[in-house]
Design brief:
The complex is a heterodimer of chains A (114) and B (113). Chain A has 114 residues and is an all-beta fold. Chain A has no helices and 11 strands. In chain A, strands 2, 4, 5, 9, 10 and 11 form a 6-stranded mixed β-sheet that branches. In chain A, strands 1-3-8-7-6 form a 5-stranded antiparallel β-sheet, with no helix packed on it. By secondary structure, chain B is mainly β. The N and C termini of chain B lie far apart (30 Å). The chains are: A mainly beta (114), B mainly beta (113).
Chain lengths: 114, 113
């Protein structure tokens, strides 16, 4: 089945700096890659996603890039703010029999220091 | 409010007991997914139901079972509970059989003492 590795596990940045979180996946047929943000004690919420026919997608201060050849995708947050502090999860939608569920990375705890 | 409703929000029970967690998907969503979240394991997929039928199974223990009812709500049954079962249990729903447009509920925090 699909396996998703996420790095780093923790990331601390100063307010205004950029943050980058990277994920790799194992199933070359995976075709959908969402990112979720989870604040302490709350549910994961979708913040951005990308499909395999697109190399990059932006939404204001957030962008995601995908390299299908290398099987990795990244989340980029620019001009970070304290409210960006949360755990971020990447995920991949597998193919075939695992096409019905998302496989998640183990998460990155992002801390934005004022 | 995401539209996915989970009850109860918190549950404290003793080892060996049995509990039932409930999830109502967003209106119109046919798929329900159950995930377990513990500190060291991230979000672990347990099981998926689509329109009343089991569609995919993950690392779900034999002590755990689930079902989806005709009104599309789902229940996750956990029995012979152990301390290690303490975790957040999330339900998510999506419109179709594929996991696009996933929306999570607020979760049930289970504490086994």
């Amino acid at each position: 089945g699909e396996n998703v590795e996420q790095h780093p596990s923790t990331l601390s940045v100063q307010e205004g700096d950029s943050a980058v979180i990277k994920c790799t996946y194992s199933d070359s047929a995976s075709n959908y890659f969402p990112w979720y943000k989870q604040e302490l004690g709350k549910r994961p919420q979708l913040i951005i996603d990308i499909r395999s026919n697109v190399g990059e997608k932006k939404d204001q201060r957030i962008a995601v890039t995908l390299n299908k050849t290398a099987k990795h995708f990244s989340l980029h947050i620019t001009e970070t703010q304290p409210e960006d502090s949360a755990v971020y999860f990447c995920a991949a939608l597998g193919s075939g029999g695992s096409n019905y569920k998302l496989t998640f990375g183990k998460g990155t705890l992002l801390t934005v220091n004022p | 409010d995401s539209g996915v409703t989970q009850t109860p929000k918190h549950l404290i029970t003793a080892t060996g007991q049995r509990v039932t967690l409930r999830c109502s998907p967003r209106s119109g969503d046919l798929s329900v997914y159950w995930y377990q979240q513990s500190l060291d394991q991230g979000l672990q997929f347990l099981i998926q139901y689509y329109n009343g039928e089991e569609r995919a199974k993950g690392n779900i223990l034999e002590r755990f079972s689930a079902q989806q009812f005709p009104d599309l709500h789902s229940e996750l049954n956990l029995s012979s509970l152990e301390l290690g079962d303490s975790a957040l249990y999330f339900c998510a729903s999506s419109p179709g059989g594929r996991a696009l447009g996933y929306t999570f509920g607020s979760g049930t925090r289970l504490t086994v003492v």
